[in-house]
Amino acid sequence: MTSFLRSIVVVFGLAGLLAACGDLPRPFEGAGRAGDPGLLELRDTGTVRVEETDDLPEGASAHLARAMARALRLRDIPAYSETDTGGDYILRPNVQASLTDNGAALDITWVLLRPDGLAIDTTRSAGELAADQWFADPPTGPEETNLAIPQELVEKVRELEGKADDPLAETYEGLVAQAADQIAFMITGDRTSLRAAPVMKVALIDFAGAPGDGNIALARSAGALLQARGITVDNREIDENSVILSATISVTPVTEQTTTPLDRVSIEWVIMESGGTELGQMTQNNVVPRGQLDERWGTVASLAAQAAVETLESVLGQIARQKKLQLRNDHKTAMAR
Question: In the chain, what are the domain boundaries?
Fold first, then answer.
């Protein structure tokens, strides 16, 4: 996780032509609103193809894959396990098994991958299978449900057809339940799928380089905008659930010939782990009339922070998912809904 954004630099420039061209643009307004899909390591929705594994007997492998697919569907993730093709995500179980007197003990690492084979994240589950479960026959029929049929309808059909609950299925469902919560959270970021996850905190530290009150004004504006989106800002208690957002600001004269003397403003935003490992960065560039920012930044700080936060929010969301944290508290503001 410490390197998934390490090499990505997003540059936004709204200066336009520096030669005389009418009214100057409002500094930083709109910069970064489109974002960059390349920053996003996870897509918001998609089907999950659960693979079987060669680490188990054939029957146990099929039952395990089906149980995970059922568990994900119960968490509103469209999932299936009957085919070797398709899927917006692939979920691969790597199983370490040790035989016991009564069956086998399993340690399963679930690897969530993109279709191109790139691993996104992992989670683990563990449990035991009795001997008859370890050597279970492969399922004889199709999966009980598909991507379009709600689980409650499946259960109603089973009731009408007089089908009894399958103790074997319940055994495998116990093996996958906790891992399914984690995987649903990896894919959707939905807090309800991982209720115990703590909230990620953002500490605004090391805003430096600006003339006048720029450092304070920019930090204050960024903090207010993050909080308005339901993101926790805490500069006092920095721990393993914190990330640090810093900004290095420079204001230098534009040397090119222009009708109105201008200053070039550059802001480099950096997100880091609390231990200092860089997670990502973004650079904004713009021009303002010469000397406008020598003392008070005023609305320029608000506009620059707004443009940055609208893009950084997506990156913070990805970092929260990687760290298995919530980006927001359960109580969200109107802007965050």
Answer: 9-40+197-322, 48-193
